[in-house]
Amino acid sequence: MDATPAREGRPVAEGDVPLPRTDPGQDVAGRLEEEIVLGLRFPRERLVEDELMERYAAKRHVVRRALQDLEHRGLVERRPNVGAYVRAYTAKEVRDIYAVRELLETHCARGIVLPVPEERLDALVAIQRRHDAAVEADDLRGIVHANTAFHQALFALSDNDALVAAILRHAQMTLAIRSVTATSPTSQVVSQREHWTMIRALREADPELLAETCRAHLLPSRDAYLRRVEAAASGRRGEPAHG
Length: 243
Prior knowledge:
Elements: H1 4-8, H2 12-15, H3 24-37, E1 46-47, H4 49-56, H5 60-73, E2 76-79, E3 83-86, H6 91-111, H7 118-136, H8 140-156, H9 161-173, H10 175-182, H11 185-203, H12 207-237
Antiparallel strand pairs: 1-3, 2-3
Helix pairs in contact: 3-5, 4-5, 6-9, 6-12, 7-8, 7-11, 10-12, 11-12
């Protein structure tokens, strides 16, 4: 689903109010991160410091710290004498990152000791019900936050903190990639169904079903982004020559 309609409907006034001042740099980084995953900011979109300062009622050093943070997370690219952009990935980079995600997530799924304690499974089910409610209400922010919470809770069942940290790091790198499907109602329903299949695999103590569902869960966002990259490349090849 093209995120352009969401971009056109961005609630600019909402962004003009000052953010809560816990850590201003993290506040700005968090808001920008959310806008990227919601498809409100596109790959290769320039992030202009003056616009961000006005939008978030933040000082320049706060905005710069936020951009540095997002660059470290793999969401922003900064170029000397040019500025900061939402990071865009080549087709090869996307395939490489998703190959790593598949290795990490399927290995983690197979490493979960089954059966899972009932209270931890109940907690996962409660998160998924929040996700269901957000999908039903067409609450995009609620969907994104519940989806993130679901996967954090799922992989935490492995009790391997280093592995979970690596999974979350690579998932965070792909926020701009995943925005293509995050805003698609059809993809949201597919994701919802796959979450329940993961829960069923845990209940039935079926590690292979769990691992295979985790693997399949990665493919729609990867493939949708690759189609966008290929379409952009085809468009450039089809442009008339200038001379």
